[in-house]
Queue: 4 jobs
Job 1
Amino acid sequence: LPAVVDSFRFSNVTLATISVGACEIVRTRQQAHSETGFVKLIWRLSGALQVDQDGRTCILEAAQVAVCDTSRPYRIRLLEKTSFFILMLPYENFPNWESMQARVCGRKLAEGAITQAAFGALATLANFSSDAIKADGDIVVRAVQWMISTTFHKNCGDVDEAVPTDGRIGRARRFILSHISDPDLSVDAVAAALCMSRRS
C-alpha cells in the first residue's frame, strides 16, 4: 500500500506525518511487543480516521487527537485517503501514565486551547525543512509534550476521587495539576506555594 511518510526522531520521541489511502493498521498482541512502552498520539489532518482500543472506538474530525497505548492491541481505520500525525512518546514522559491510560486510550482528547495549540505547533513544525526541524524540533516537541500531559490530567480530573480537595494534599494536588506543563515545577516550588518545608 503506497504511503507518504516523513519521520523525525528527537531523543526518545518520534514524530511522523503520514498520508495513505483507505486501509487498516492493526496492532495485535504479538506485534505490540515491538512498540511496547509508548504512548501513541494520532492527529487527523484530512480524510476519515477511526481509532479502536480497549473496546472503545472514536472517529476523529480535523485537528482532533486520539490516544493509544502501544503495549496493547489497537486498530486505526482509514476510510479514505487520509493524512495524519503520529507522535510517539515513552511512558516515562508522562508521570502517572498507569493511572491515566484507562481514561484516555481509545478516546478523543478533550478539545480546547491547549490541544489546539499542540496541534498548531506540530503543524507548523511539519512545514519547515528537515534541517530546521532537526535544529528546533526537540524544543517544539517538548512543549507539545507538556501541553498533552496537561490535557491528559484534565481528561482524568476525576480519576482519583478519593484524593481530598481540601487540606494540604488537596491544595498540593491542585497546584501540581495547574502547573503540570511548567518545566520548572519541582518539589521546592510546591513546598513554597504551600508555605511548608520541602521535607513536609
Note: Residues 158-164 have pLDDT under 50 and may be disordered.
Job 2
Amino acid sequence: MAFQTATATDYKDLLAQLRTFAVANGCTSLRYTTGDTDEFIFKTAGNLFAGIRTYYDTGAGYYNFEIRGFTGFDTTLGFTSQPGISPTHYTPLQNSTMTYWLTVNDRAVNLFVKTGSAYQCVITCLLDTYGSNAANDYPYPACIMGVTSTRGTLYSSNSLELASTVNPQYRNASVYFIDNAWRYLHNYS
C-alpha cells in the first residue's frame, strides 16, 4: 500500500495532489478537469470506480469535496450521470493549508485531512467479502464515505450529523449491496 503525508495549500490543491499520487500508484485517471469546479474520476487497479468534485460558497465560507461511487464510466456523461452512481457524500475542507494522509492500493483511495482541530475523511474502497459464496453475493463490494450528507457543512461545524469511519451514521456512507443498489451504511440515524 502506498502512503503519503503532506500539506496542501487549499482544497483544490488537495484534489490535485490526491490525483497525482493515485495515478502514480496504479489508479487510472478517467477524467480530470479544473476550473470553477475541479473534478477527478478514477478507477483503481481492482476496478473500483469513484469520483471527487470540489465545490464552494465564498459567502458561506465552505470549500468542500463531493464524493461519489460509480459502477462504471462513460466519457460522454457528466459527473452526476455516470453509471450506477452512489448517493452523495461530502467532506468539509478549507481554503487554506491542510495536512493530509493518503493511502492508495488496488482496492482503495483513502484520505484523512486535518482541518483546524478536526479530522475529515474521504473513503473510496472495495470491501473484503466473506462467506461461502462471497464472490457471487457481492459482485461489486464498493464503499463510499465522506463526513456528512449536508452539502454546505463547514469544516469547523460541531453538528451531530458529522461522522467518521469509526462511527458512520445515516447518509455519510454507502455500500453497493448484493441487490445491485447503493445502501446507506450507519450505526444510527
Note: The radius of gyration is 16 Å.
Job 3
Amino acid sequence: ADWMVAHRSANTAQILSGGKPVEIGEPLDRVFDSEAMKVLRRQTSLLVSDDDVERLFAIDLLGGRGKFDCSLHATGDLVVLEIEPSSHEGFDRQLRMIQPIMRQLEPVDDLEELCGIAADRLKDMLGFDRVMVYRFHPDGSGDVIAEAREDHLEAFLGLRYPHTDIPKQARALYLRNRFRIISDVEAEPVPIEPEQVMEGGELDLSMSTLRAVSPIHIEYLRNMGVGASLSISIIVRGELWGLFACHHYSAKVLPYSLRTTAELFSELFSLMVERVYGRAEASFLATGREMHDK
C-alpha cells in the first residue's frame, strides 16, 4: 500500500530492458515512469477482493524503453504486479476472433457436439497440438469428452482419469484462478526475493499467472512428452465442471492478450454449457407437466 518494493523476482532487471536492479524497499516511482505510476495506482484502486485481477496491455512503464503487458492483484496487504514484454498482437483483433466462434456455438444444444466444436475452435485460436475438454465427476475423477489434435498424435478421447490425477487442492485453486499456463517445462523457475513475507510464510501466489508449478506436475508432463501446457477452468453454476486441457509437444509462449482472450472464451463457453443444462431441465419439466395434464 505504500508503493515500496517488498519482493521482486530475481530476473526483474533483465525483464525491464536490462535496467538497474530493483532494490527491496525502493519506492516504485523511482523505477517506473510517472504516467505509468498514475495508471498503476488507478487500476489498483479497482481491486476489491483478493480474487480480482486487473490487466494492462502495451503500457509504457519505463518512459520510452519498451511496452509491457501487466496484471495486478492483491494478496493480503500487498499488491502483486506481474510484468512481461508486450507482444505486437492487438488485443482488439484477438477479441474479434471470439464473436464468430460464439455464433457457431449458439444454436448447438447437444453437449458433446458443443464441446467438440469448442475444442476445435480453441485449437485454431491458440495453435496447441492437442486441446481436450475434460469433465469432472462428483467423485473428483474425470474423463475426456472432446478432443481436437494433430493427426499424428494418439487419441485421448474417452480416457477416464482417477481423482488423484488432479488433487483436491488443485481443483479448489481452479475455481479461484481459471488460467494456468506452463510455456516451457524445461524452463528453470525464477526465485522471488525475499522468499518470505514480513509476517512469516511464503507470498501467496494463488492468483498469479507467471508462478511456477509443482515439480511433480512438471515431471508428469515430461513423462508424457509434453513441452508446454495450458489449463482453463470451465465453471458451471459456481462449481468446477471441467477444464480445457491443452498440450503442445515443444515450448510455446502465448502473448498475455491472447491468453486473456482464451480466458474470456472459457467464461462464455461456461455460460453456454449452463444454458444447455437449463434447456434440458426445462424440457424435462415441460414433459412432466404434459404427462400430469393428460
Note: Helices lie at 12-15, 34-44, 91-96, 98-105, 111-126, 168-176, 215-223, 256-293.
Job 4
Amino acid sequence: EKLRKDGKTFSILEIGANEHKNLEKFLPNDIVKYLDIKVPEELIEDSQYILANATEMPEIETNSYDILIALDVFEHIPKELRDNFLSELNRVANIAVILAGPFDEVGVNESEVRVNAYFKTKFGIDYIWLEEHISNGLPNLNNTINLLESKFSRNISHFKHGSLALWEKLIKLHFEEVQNYDLHLYVQNIYSYYNKNIFQYDVDENCYRDFIICCSDKLDVSNFFKIKEEDNQKLNFLNDLIDSTYKLSMEKGFMKIQEKEQQIQE
C-alpha cells in the first residue's frame, strides 16, 4: 500500500506460489498471477498459473509485472543459481521486488535442524522444505543486500519479523495438526489468536524471516511492525493454547486406542 498511488491496480507475479492462491485474498483488487517450477495437473490450464523456472524466464518480458513477490523461495534456489534468480526478478519487475524468507543468521540454522529432527522423529522422514534449506545452505543476508545494492538501480529496504523461538513452537504445532487432523478447527483458532494479538508485535532480537524490498522509492519500514510490547499475558495465553493442543492430541489418541480395543472385543 505504501507503493500504491492514486488507487493504482497492480499486476503482481508471485514466484514459487504453490497451488493455494493465498496472495489474492490479501490483495483482492490487484491482478495476481502465480509462477512455479511445478504446477499440479488440475492447474495446468488455469490462466493464473505460469509453469516456469524463475532462474531463467525468457517467456516473460522485461518490466511486464509491477511487483514480483517471492516468499520462502530464495533459500530453495541452489547457490549457483541465486544470482540468476535475483537478476530475473529484477528484470521482470517494473516497480518492486519483495523477497522474504530465512537467512543464515544467529540461531536460524540450529532451529531448522531441531525442527527437522522433530519432524523426522514424528514421521520417520525429513521435512522436505527444511531438508532443502539444510542441503542448499541458507543465503547470507549481508551478501544478498550488498549484491542487490551494487547490481540493481533500486533502493533497498529491510526489516525482520517472527520471533525465532515462537516460529519453532508454531511450526511444531502445525506438525501436530498434520498428524491428527481432528485438531484442525482448534489449531485454526490458535492461529487466529496469534494473528489478532501477537503478529503485529512479533519482532525479536532473533527473528526467523528477513524481508527485503527493492524498489524505485526508498520505503520507510520502521512502522510496519511495532516493537515487541511487554504483554506477557497474551503471550502466556498463546503458550497455554499451544500446550492444550498437545494434551487434546493425546486424549484423542487414547480415545482411538480405546475404540479399536472395543471393536476387537465385539
Note: The mean pLDDT is 91.
